[in-house]
Amino acid sequence: MNNRGSYPDVRLYIDGSWRDCPDHLPVVNPATEAVIGQVPIAQTSDLDDALAAATEGFEIWSRTPPKARASLVRAASALMRERQDEIAESITLEHGKPFNQARAEVIRGCEFFEWDAGESVRTYGRVIPSAPGVKYIVHHQPIGPVAAFSPWNFPMSQPARKIAGAVASGCSIILKAAEETPAGAMHIVQAFHDVGLPPGVLNLVFGIPQDISNHLIPHEAIKLVAFTGSTSVGRTLTGLASDNMTPVLMELGGHAPVIVCEDTDVKPAAISSAIRAMRNAGQVCTSPTRFFVHEKIFDEFLEIITERSAATVVGDGMTEGIDMGPLANGRRLAALTELVADAVDVGAELMTGGSRIGTTGYFFEPTVLANVPATGRIMQEEPFGPIAIVNPVDSLDSAIAQANSVPYGLAAYGFTNRADYVDQMVDRVEAGNLSINTLEASLPETPFGGVKSSGYGREGGAEGLNHYTVVKNVSHSIAIV
């Protein structure tokens, strides 16, 4: 890998060694549309090598004491913290997000490693009371080699979640990271390589996504499929896994509602909502997108969120003072343009934004839509861009009903100071993660995942390693002399 100041030379990592391939895909800087690197396309032979390496690596790593595994994971995380500026620069170049936000992502990824390292020594079993001369003992053991797939929107922290869970649990892993943003995963692998992770435990591949998933997932060596991405792709991968009865861990799409009750302190709620909705150019599965605001405070909330959204400073993430970078690619530009046009066509009010910025780079205006009819596509389809939808409601019941009206249930938010409102939201809002008076949905120490079409399983928290282990019950009859 190259030194700071340039984009890294992207390679595959298999069985403890970096390798190149004859065919490549371009890596494009979304702020300039310039090609900044090449990502290798793994061949079938590379994938077979990775499967063999992961199988052998699992035999070694699963027998490594948890304290030793935790120590090595912490050492790798410490290296990543030391290299945070180098990693952040690579992320900004390939993804476009502002440098300071990229650096915060690196630290967040390190926190995932550090939390899971601690949990690796707390995968406790239990002894079940029984008759004299009989012991029932429950063990949690590493499940086996993992095939993992991470998305492009968080190039470092999303691969970190998959690698941390697998490695801390004693599993080996083959990670297919996103071809659009490969550098974050490469930096993680380099850190583990530098601290001496045994060959085969961690393998990194890139290429044609369908070819890789079709080859890895049905293979008998793979004992778990872990995926973060769209619901449609998640369903396809789950179907592949089901043929072999391979368990899955799926973190899929969202369309997060925000319920703003009439007792809310409007200004701070609206300002924080605007900032959060535009974070990462809205390319966050937990991004607050659908705001259901009580009619008594609707006009005030709409005015403030519109004003703050319009004030978002958009530009190249390497430029100081930038709040929001470009979208990831031209496909996102086209998708958002269509969704906004459809919303306006059915009667929505375009309060600000709604268009591409300039002709170079995939920049899109921070956008606020108001009074969007239920027939608008954007009310059901996750925008995955810098768009806030603000609609009035006349009651909490109406807000909850509309919040639950989509097939997604990843994150949801509420603003209120009334305990009875909080209680109703906790009981009735359909989401795996509900945040009240805060727009933070995911922390290393808390379980994260969705319900309905937003996925299956949890990452983070004490539950985060569950899917990477299998439960074995041992019944032991002891002869009494």
CATH class of the largest domain: Alpha Beta
What overall geometry do the principal axes of the alpha carbons give? Answer: globular
Order of strands in the sheet with the most strands? 14-15-16-13-12-18-19
Counted beta strands: 22
If classified by CATH, what would the architecture of the largest domain be?
3-Layer(aba) Sandwich
Main beta sheet: 7 strands, mixed
Radius of gyration, Cα only, in angstroms?
A: 23 Å
What CATH calls the topology of the largest domain is: Aldehyde Dehydrogenase, Chain A, domain 1
Query: What is the fourth-level CATH superfamily of the largest domain?
Result: Aldehyde Dehydrogenase, Chain A, domain 1
Count of alpha and pi helical runs: 13
Briefly note the structural class of the backbone.
alpha/beta
Instruction: Determine the strand fraction and express it as a percent band.
Output: 15-25%
What descriptors fit this protein?
481 residues; Aldehyde Dehydrogenase, Chain A, domain 2; alpha/beta; Aldehyde Dehydrogenase, Chain A, domain 1; seven-stranded mixed beta sheet; 13 helices
Care to give the gist of this entry?
With 481 residues, the protein is of the alpha/beta class. Helices cover 36% and strands 21% of the residues. It is built from 13 helices and 22 strands.
